[in-house]
Amino acid sequence: MDAYAYLNGEFLPLAETRLQVTDLAFLRGYGIFDFLRVVKGHPIFVDDHLDRFEQAAKVMGLQMPESRECLQQLIAELIQLNPHELLGLKMILTGGYSADGFTPAEQPNLLAWASPFSFPDAALGVSLMSYEYHREIPGVKTLSYLPPIQMLPQLKRQATDDYLYYWNGLISESSRSNVFIVKNQTVSTAATGILPGITRKHVLSVCQGIFAVEERAIQLAEVFAADEVFITSSNQRIMPVRQIDQHVLPQPYPGPVTRKLQALFLEREGMQRVAVNR
Amino acid sequence: MDAYAYLNGEFLPLAETRLQVTDLAFLRGYGIFDFLRVVKGHPIFVDDHLDRFEQAAKVMGLQMPESRECLQQLIAELIQLNPHELLGLKMILTGGYSADGFTPAEQPNLLAWASPFSFPDAALGVSLMSYEYHREIPGVKTLSYLPPIQMLPQLKRQATDDYLYYWNGLISESSRSNVFIVKNQTVSTAATGILPGITRKHVLSVCQGIFAVEERAIQLAEVFAADEVFITSSNQRIMPVRQIDQHVLPQPYPGPVTRKLQALFLEREGMQRVAVNR
Q1: Of A19, A29, A176, the CB nearest to B146
Q2: Burial degree of A224 (CB within 10 A; 0-12, 13-18, 19+)
Q3: Phi then psi for B137, rounded to 5 degrees?
Q4: CA distance B189 to B17
Q5: What is the pLDDT of residue B276?
Q6: What percentage of chain B reaches a pLDDT higher than 70?
Q7: Cβ–Cβ contact B55 with A under 8 A
Q8: Hey, which family's this protein in (chains A, B) (predicted)?
Q9: Cβ A143–B60 below 8 Å, yes or no?
Q10: Is the model's pLDDT at B274 over the cut of 70?
């Protein structure tokens, strides 16, 4: 892989991008990240991602070392250094090289890299396993993924693709995506205890005037009674859910509402590319 | 700092010990560690620490790349490379360089390093802030410390040293130590939802035949009514607690039971050093 990376002001090959082991992301999992797609050289919803990245730094008490303009510039340079049709671009801000192994350093480490990327086949859909869990700081894209990774062997044994997190009977999200249900042409998604997904935001937006939308508390039982279920993320866009635990969702996949939203979302994404290009 | 480190079979200066950013500890906080003290060249309770480290690897589905004998050997070499009166020795096992950024690699990364260390002054004691929280996988020394690090500014504003975690009205542990209370000459500590501390284990052991001991569920309210409270960890041994939130514990610090246990524990540690030396 010929991926190029950015580390604290320098551009270098990803394989040579190394951090000392006293970095707090490594010692204590302390840091944040964001991930965006780049289609034919255009970063998709880049301002949304940078808004979220900067906000996450504030919430976690990390000083963002570069201005918005510098972040935009480094993204542009990484895109130039990695000439591929479709890129995934990851940015990470860590607690830096900690003097005592616990307290964040004055100077965080800022990294980013882009690597060739392909979408999973949305026609296949995904299966989910319900899992009683909530992330510790759900509103922030932190580096903390212990339980879902620890549980991967069980997921694999059950030939399941991902999790459906629930807590106190209410669903929240999947391990790296938001969850939507469709019932009687109404599109609903959890309001709280979730990462504010960029794809989620734009799906809610394109629903306006076409489908009724509810951001609210959703019972786990409602998911099993839904007409359609889909998950959204920057690396999957809108992915239909085929099955949750033993429950098979009504066919076809994607269902009619999901299909309509996929089309509207692609249009939105294309408009956004044009806007960036202007 | 002239600390030396071990990384996957090689010994090198700590500052040159770097991992690629695709390591799963860095990307997703996925890994385990352990920490032991080395006094005048003797690693303290080394078998207890290696038992726990190997057990943690199993629980997290990580393949320990070296045998017990190799781990003992690398500890011995690190001690030779770092000739100091008192060392802290940290071992870390990570999810390795992940191909997809989420799934642990076949080959974890194993690191260890030793650095000069000093005990905090037990005569000063510490203050704790009660904090409603439990670690996600409490029985394992994982790399996951988001909430306690995020809250450090609040801890500092309140001029407090550490947390007292509680959940559903029951206490568990502090951020990096176990918690004991003493009431009417009975020594009690939480039974579940905690890291099985090595110092905790030996404190419970030296109590035998001298003080009544209870490993049980402990209400937060009991801590405020205790005669003495102390925390235990490999880098603090037995540290008296002076204050929890606004509540000042009865003087003196350390109290008589804590003081007796400190003496018994030092004796135990010394015996253990002799045993290693034999």
Answers
A1: A29
A2: middle
A3: -130, 75
A4: 38
A5: 53
A6: 97
A7: no
A8: Belongs to the class-IV pyridoxal-phosphate-dependent aminotransferase family.
A9: no
A10: no
Beta carbons of A143 and B29 less than 8 Å apart: yes
To test the contact with chain B by mutation, choose from A150, A161, A177 the residue with the greatest count of B C-beta atoms within 10 A, namely: A150
Cα-to-chain-centroid distance, residue A90: 10
Using alpha carbons, select from A63, A38, A35, A60 the residue that is nearest to residue A49.
A35
Q: Do A146 and B144 make contact, defined as CB atoms within 8 angstroms?
A: yes
Tell me the nearest-neighbour CA distance from B210 into chain A, angstroms: 36
B220-262 pLDDT per residue, tens:
999 999 999 999 999 999 999 999 999 999 999 999 999 999 9
Domains of chain A listed by start with CATH number: 4-116 (3.30.470.10), 126-273 (3.20.10.10)
**Chain centroid, CA B78 distance in Å:** 20
Specify the amino acid at residue A57: A
The reply to whether B14 touches chain A by the CB within 8 Å rule is yes
Rounded CA gap, B227 and B43, in Å?
A: 33
Token pair for residue A256? 């009619």
In chain A, which residue's Cα lies nearest the Cα of B117? A100
Asked whether the beta carbons of residue A28 and residue B143 sit closer than 8 angstroms, the reply is yes
> C-alpha dihedral over A11, A12, A13, A17, to 10 degrees?
-110
- Counting Cα atoms < 13 Å in the Cβ hemisphere of A67 gives 3
Nearest Cα to Cα of residue B187 among B156, B210, B166, B155 = B210
Task: Give the whole-angstrom CA distance, residue B46 versus residue B36.
Answer: 7
pLDDT tens-digit readout, B155-208:
999 999 999 999 999 999 999 999 999 999 999 999 999 999 999 999 999 999
- Test B143 with A26 for CB contact under 8 angstroms: yes
Q: A215-219, B8-12, B271-275 — which is least confidently predicted?
A: B271-275
Say which residue the tokens 């900067």 belong to.
A54
- Quick: pLDDT tens for A33-54: 999 999 999 999 999 999 999 9
Chain A residues inside the 8 Å CB shell of B26: 19, 23, 25-26, 92, 94, 143
Show the tokens assigned to B193: 């939802």
Which residue in A15, A27, A137 is closest to B146 by CB distance?
Answer: A137
Residue with tokens 């949304």: A48
